[in-house]
Design brief:
This protein has one helix and six strands, in the order βββββαβ. With 115 residues, it is mostly beta strands. Strands 1, 2, 3, 4, 5 and 6 form a six-stranded antiparallel beta sheet that branches. The termini are close together.
Amino acid sequence: LLMGRLLCALAVLRSASAGASKEDLQIEVLERVEGCSRRARAGDVVSITHSGFVHEVPVGEHAGWNGRKIDQNPDGEPLKFKLRSKSIIKGMDLAIEGMCVGEKVSVVMPPHMSF
């Protein structure tokens, strides 16, 4: 089983709708935005920069992959998508919901919420 770690920075927000449970995620705020007046919500179009790493592989064919980069922005361009539209992995979708523009987080997500 692969546990993924995601580092992302939120860049752009637009649009509407409501929240969701994040209890399966371990989210650490690396850079907080002071005076944030608007947080990302379901239905918003967001733009992020991200890197995905293997966090923990206890056994199996991928043992020893800990720390290996497995995903990042294509061509260095921000990844744009609509939150809760099922266009990205579930863990990333839920982790970004509630972030402010400019905020940076580190997320550890269980296998069922990652690739």
